[in-house]
Design a protein that fits this description.
Length: about 170
């Protein structure tokens, strides 16, 4: 199916198209969630069923909040290479800007490029004046992306995720 599953806008960057999820994205997402070496290293892999529920929760996030997961595609390609998202779970005090790239897409600046686009869209479309990223204190690659996005941390941990530092993103300049 190529029909959009959400009301997500399509965002374009120099090298990427960011769009809402399609049913055809599920196999790549499932592969990442169930077998990615990075997910294994963080002890966050799950079953196919958990990936399916996570995928559906991402769709529901768009319906509930008007924001959620953007699927990343290299321009001119069709295979998903990762996701960047805005999340606001019921027990989280702030809206989170987060990202993950699938194998083979790391180290090319895609997370930063997509993060800038989603953050700008969030500030413009939703009027947010603050976003945070909850990043595991040992996830040095995500910390590097946060720094490139201009986010800062004082090392304070998130109440809902004790291994995660809270990184604050500054408001978009006017």
């Amino acid at each position: 199916m190529t029909e959009p599953l959400t009301s997500a806008p399509v965002l374009e960057t120099e090298r990427l198209t960011l769009r809402g999820p399609l049913q055809s994205d599920l196999p790549e997402f499932t592969r990442f969630m169930t077998s990615s070496p990075r997910m294994q290293a963080q002890e966050e892999t799950g079953s196919k069923e958990q990936a399916w529920f996570g995928f559906l929760a991402g769709i529901g996030h768009w319906q509930w909040h008007g924001f959620g997961f953007f699927t990343l595609i290299e321009r001119g390609q069709s295979l998903p290479i990762g996701r960047v998202w805005l999340l606001k779970h019921s027990n989280w005090p702030e809206v989170e800007l987060a990202w993950h790239l699938f194998e083979g897409a790391e180290g090319k600046g895609y997370a930063t490029e997509a993060g800038l686009a989603v953050r700008s869209w969030a500030y413009q479309a939703h009027g947010f004046n603050q976003l945070v990223s909850y990043i595991d204190y040992e996830n040095y690659r995500s910390k590097a992306v946060a720094k490139r996005l201009g986010a800062e941390t004082d090392g304070v941990r998130a109440d809902h995720e004790p291994d995660a530092e809270i990184w604050s993103h500054l408001p978009e300049p006017i």
